[in-house]
Amino acid sequence: MNPVGGHRPLRKTILMTRTIGIIGSGLVGKAVAHLAIAAGYDVVISNSRGPDTISALVQELGPLARAGTVDDVIAAGDIVTLSVPLASFERLPADKFAGKVVLDQTNYYPGMGGFHRTDLDKGELTSSELLQRHLRGAKLVKGLHNLSWIHMESNARPKGDAARTTLPIAGDDAAAKGAVTSFLETIGYHVVDAGSLADSWRIEPGTPIYFWRYAPVVPEGVSGDEAKEIYQQRGEPVSPAEARTLIDEAVRPSPIGGTLEGMPQVHVDLFLEQASADTVRR
Question: Name one Pfam family in it (predicted).
Fold first, then answer.
């Protein structure tokens, strides 16, 4: 299924052979890859186990995709997405990212993967500022992080569609934000600028624009397969004006960071089901 509402992908010539590098081949990375390829981008994707372990995924994605090492992805990508847990950031080869536009999809969930930082807990810096410090020469932009892998494809819509929703970004480099905005608009979203990386707390877990505005409401009393079917549909669209209001009215969460306790059971069930199926296919 085409993620942008059944419309044809944009012609490849329009995109001038732009390449999206994706670090992470899990549920999030796969969703980004599907959206990018549907829009006509070339994709190079990697994981921590090596290119040979994602040959089935590359076959599924088609001729615009290829597997590579993390270094391959960084070298090839005009935009490089971090579609991996924040806990793994210190394993990223910082020196390789110099000059690269990096799309930060990570989120801070204290304790997840054994990862916990007092400076993040105290709000001394945002998780994206932490990543920018590690990836010193990169041009990092926070974005495509505030909706789940389930809803990335279902919410994407072509320009002019009344159901097209809005995603926020944040970053310190204007040109990098422009590149990421163009990418997100091409794969199916309106975009609003939430400010600098220091401002990115306004679009982190626990804020009004994070997660819930992009998920549909599952009626009470619905369970099992019907609940899963409903939950995988798009949420109500967020207009650029509404997104701006949600960002501007955000109050810094306390405690800082996300938690799994508030996730609906259907989300957890789908994660376990799809993550397990993905593991079996590898």
Answer: F420_oxidored
